[in-house]
Write a structure and sequence with these properties.
Distance between the termini: 24 Å
Structural class: mainly alpha
Oligomer: single chain
Helix content: 55-70%
Order of helices and strands: HHHH
Number of strands: 0
Shape: extended
Number of domains: 1
Radius of gyration: 15 Å
Number of helices: 4
Strand content: under 5%
């Protein structure tokens, strides 16, 4: 019997969703099932402080092949 972790299942599921639906629709789908918590605006400001849109896009593109 092969044991697979929840993280491995989630990774595979996200890959399928991204491939079939694209990133935008996948995010919209997943947001239906999570209420979220905290203050998104404060978190966003902290995470992206001092970054331009081009900086953010470059960071996403450099990390898109990571597991």
């Amino acid at each position: 019997m092969i044991t697979i972790t929840n993280n491995e299942i989630n990774k595979e599921a996200f890959e399928v969703l991204f491939k079939e639906l694209g990133v935008s629709k996948t995010i919209r789908f997943i947001n239906q099932f999570s209420a979220g918590k905290g203050n998104y605006t404060e978190m966003k400001d902290k995470i992206f402080k001092g970054m331009t849109v081009d900086d953010i896009v470059s960071e996403i593109e450099s990390n898109k092949d990571l597991p």
